[in-house]
Amino acid sequence: MDLLSSALDMQTGRRKEQDALAQSLSKMPWSRFSAWLECVCVVTFDLELGQAMELVYPHDLRLSEKEKTSICYLSFPDSYSGCLGDSQFNFRLRQSVGHKLTWLGEDREYNRDAPLTLQRETAHFFGYVYFRQVKDSSVKRGYFQKSLVLVSRLPYVNLFQSLLQLIAPEYFEKLEPCLEAVCNEIDQWPPPVPGKTLHLPVMGVVMQVRIPSKADLLGSSPTRQLNQENLLPAPFVLQSLQELDLFRCFQPVLIHIQMLWELMILGEPVVVMAPSPTISSEIVLALTRPNVILGVTNPFFIKTLQHWPHILRVGELKMSGDLPKQVKLKKLIKLKTLDTKPGIYTSYKTFLHKDKILVKKLLKGIQRKRPSEVQSALLRRHLLELTQSFIIPLERYVASLMPLQKAITAWKNPPQVRPFRQEEFLKTLEHAGPQLTSVLKGDWLGLYRRFFRSPNFDGWYRQRHKEMTQKLETLHLEVICEADIETWMKDKSEVEIVDLVLKLRDKLIRAQSQHLSVSEGTLQRLGLYIETVIGSLPDDLQGVLHHRH
User: Fold this and answer.
1) Residues 138, 74, 307, 284: what is their CA dihedral angle, to the nearest 10 degrees?
2) Which of 264, 273, 325, 329 is nearest to 292 (CA)?
3) What single DSSP character describes residue 235?
4) Residue 478: which of 530, 526, 531, 512 has the closest Cα?
5) What whole-number distance in Å separates Cα of residue 396 and Cα of residue 388?
6) Distance CA 339, CA 5 (A)
7) 511 partner at 20 to 30 Å CA-CA among 49, 72, 347, 547?
8) Phi and psi of 93, rounded to 5°?
């Protein structure tokens, strides 16, 4: 086998293995189902055991005991008093060690093309719950209590909660046969592909959804799909997979939206206390998860969690024509009694001033009975623009740390990304700071300094540094393939040439393992380069290098 074939095989071999594995899995039972859901669980209340797993579907799915226990506890409200009837909420739990996703090409492609907020989780499950609690004299406890739970690695809140609204009432009447039929229907769905509009039939209804893509315009609303392809019955169109009614969630804290935004940017741990799991989980999702956000309903947690630095306590979310009562900022020391009033309990001092214009606009919208979706769009646009104003100077500075392309030469290691120097960055803010795109005044420098000490900065910078390093590797490969290798080899010793072969092979392997965005043509030329270099060596060295390969 010549080296060019070997080099190309290295590139294509793994892909063929992944494709073969994907094809074999696609023929396995529940392969299409697993593109959407991990499993469906039924959790009931047992007088002796407490919450207990009654059913997991598909039956052959293996959840660890720890995962089962977590799902059982998280699938019931931590306080039952306000949950008579049906209620829906969500949770997120960490997978057990060893329970890792088989990462196939399709999963990688999905995460490559999907927006960050919709990417498939590798270490966590999302739980979407439909909980029913009704009086039942035939039960010793006097109440029927049961939850139907969809477990998935996809954060499709609206889709899965809408799905539960269709299937849960039927399940509670017809039990397992109904559930089996629904799972078989889901097993016929096409896989989620970013940028595609899909029609998903279930229980006589066709749900039409569009999977967002990174290529979509930032901040744009989902496009209305007019082409229904003569489907019968007419599809139920979901305008968004995961967007919540932000205005409804935040109406009691509109005057503090600036503070909540800062806490999220800084990755501060927050407890949300609400009267129901529905409100609690909606507010947690609306805050889009920083370092830790914990949503609870049981007043007992006021004592247990009073050491947390930021606690948001809200009442019922009422969408009336009146101006919503705004909660007050309160000192943490006042958070001691179980009947604690609504408020934001924190000692945090904001760096930026409130946006009074936004608050007035939203409050005026309530008086004029402006639709909630319009109010939410205003709020979402404001928060998006605020985040962009904060991030753009950081992105601009990080881009300046990238070496110039002309500094990349074929026969030297690629230059490294310059280190991030905080003081150097802060000096750039005078002429290229957030004030260019935001009207908000305040201590922006102080906010950035606090951000540098937060886990969010560490995660953000690690990701950017990784992307730039991979870009340098890609550019270096392209420069090598354009170089005149025969001229370079004329005055080089055998040791230097063998060293080059080993380095080029290492680069080829790294390009594949890191899935660098290198073209097939570049990889083919690199394979030819390696073959050319080896061909210039004595036969005995050629044999050794071929054997080592």
Assistant:
1) -120
2) 264
3) P
4) 526
5) 12
6) 74
7) 547
8) -135, 150
